[in-house]
Amino acid sequence: MTWFAVALLLALALIGMPLFAVVLAGAMLGFVASGVDLSVVALEVYRIADTPLLVSLPLFTFAGYLMTASNSAQRLMALTRALFGWMPAGLAIVGFVACAVFTALTGASGVTIVAIGALLLPMLLKAGYGERFSLGMVTTSGSLGVLIVPSVPLILYGVIAQQIDVGVSFTIPQLFLAGMVPVLLMLLALAGYTIWSQKGVERTEFSFAAVKSAFWDARFEIPLPFVILGAIYSGYFAISEAAAITAMYVLIVEVFLYREVTLRQLPSVIRESMVMVGSIILILGAALALTGYFVDAQIPQQLFEFIHERVSNPIVFLILLNVLLLVLGAFLDVFSATVIMVPLILPIAVQYGIHPLHLGVIFIANLQIGYFTPPIGMNLFIASYRFERPVLELYRACLPFMVVLLLVLLLVTYVPSLSLWFLDR
Predict the structure, then answer these.
(1) CB 272: neighbour CB atoms within 10 A?
(2) pLDDT tens per residue, range 22-31
(3) Cα 289 from chain centroid (whole Å)
(4) Among 78, 148, 165, 173, which residue has the least CB neighbours within 10 Å?
(5) Around Cβ 126, how many Cβ atoms within 10 Å?
(6) Residue 425 reports pLDDT greater than 60
(7) Helices 391-414 + 378-387 axis angle, to 10
(8) What end-to-end distance do the CA atoms of the chain give, in Å?
(9) Which region among 195-204, 253-262, 363-372, 399-408 has the lowest average model confidence (pLDDT)?
(10) How far, in Å, CA of 2 to CA of 26, rounded?
């Protein structure tokens, strides 16, 4: 592919051409320039249909949209506040946990800002937390769940990495285990910063009656994490079967037990969730076609040789990788960045001795921070619209949280055992 073709594709992307069309055009131009018949593009796209793991994406997404359409956010907030509100900075810690869990279950950081952030912001202000702190917290917390089971971005990384098939093989449950300690460290670091920065904020009194009431209200949703974790880690179910169980459970709970989503609303929820899934699969199909061209043209190997001549130290490579991913996360959504960059970065990282599981955690953690990285992190604009605040004000509000998470990211990047702790067992 010539530099002119690359420049043309970039120009088309900048003027608004759909991402899948840009990626697919790149694959087709590359194969044509290499003298390869274009039928190979159709074969590469067809490979998606032969990926059983891909079934989990629409099922988990459907379950998340169902929860978003119900009052799950309110019940989750009430339960976590009743359990942890008595702690120092308890309400803020409740917010971190609730946002992380809700994002993990729904798969959408922006939805968490709208659903839980709208509840949390007035509660924080009323409890005496600073306005800048409160705005920064609700803007950044929505991204925490992308490393928690059943995170759709992690599943997407796993699908692409398994298709590329370089380095040590792994399973999706192992990928979820790899993200467990890093996300706990992020929550603990944010809680520690909150306790230090928000001294003097009043705590709520612990009440058994409030806990009992919150447990009763959320009685059908409390088992959900155990259903998901049990199905995935028991070894009796594949990830796609676990997704089917999750979707069926959420459907029964929200439609027939809580009755907050009516049968008349159900087609609309299905349609909205499948539009999201369709866009992901469309981009993924185009990305796999482009990956096929990359492999055929040995582009990852050429990139590795180019980089290795200038960067021989894996530590320096990881620093540059973090900077690149943070920039990409600020400009692209997590799905687009994943399908475009994983085929290029994974083969190079493996040759530097980086485990694919460790890379997956680094990759998604960077894109998670990119959600609220200036100038155009997606969460910044969602929060600006939802809370009617200038984007520049949100930049300042998010900065301390970004520093805290970047410090944890550096720790996770350079201490691989935090992600690979379970492999030696």
Answers:
(1) 15
(2) 777 777 887 7
(3) 23
(4) 165
(5) 10
(6) no
(7) 140
(8) 46
(9) 195-204
(10) 11
The DSSP letter of residue 405 is H
The rounded Cα 188 to chain-centroid distance in angstroms is 19
Max CA distance (Å), the chain:
72
Q: Letter for the amino acid at 417?
A: S
Average pLDDT score, the chain: 80
* CB contact at 8 A, 409 and 415: no
CA–CA separation, 329 vs 235, rounded Å? 34
User: With 0-12 CB in 10 A as exposed, 13-18 as middle and 19+ as buried, what is 237?
Assistant: middle
105 or 63, higher pLDDT: 63
Contact 293/30 with Cβ under 8 angstroms? yes
Distance in angstroms (rounded) separating the CA atoms of residues 282 and 241: 23
pLDDT-above-70 percentage for the chain: 87
d(CA 120, CA 150): 24
Say if residues 406 and 369 touch (Cβ distance below 8 Å): yes
* Exposed e or buried b per residue across 151-188, where buried means at least 16 C-beta atoms within 10 angstroms of its C-beta: bbbbbbbbbbbbbbebbeebebbbbbbbbbbbbebbbe
What is the model's pTM?
0.76
What does the buried/exposed string (b/e) look like for 11-20 if buried means 16 or more CB atoms within 10 Å of the residue's CB?
A: eebeeeeebb
Please answer whether residues 96 and 133 qualify as being in contact, where contact means their C-beta atoms are separated by less than 8 angstroms.
no
d(CA 160, CA 342): 7
Helices (H), 107-222: 109-112, 118-127, 131-140, 152-164, 172-197, 208-217
**110 token code pair:** 């922006």
- Residue given tokens 């702790």 in the structure block: 421
pLDDT at residue 405 in the model: 92
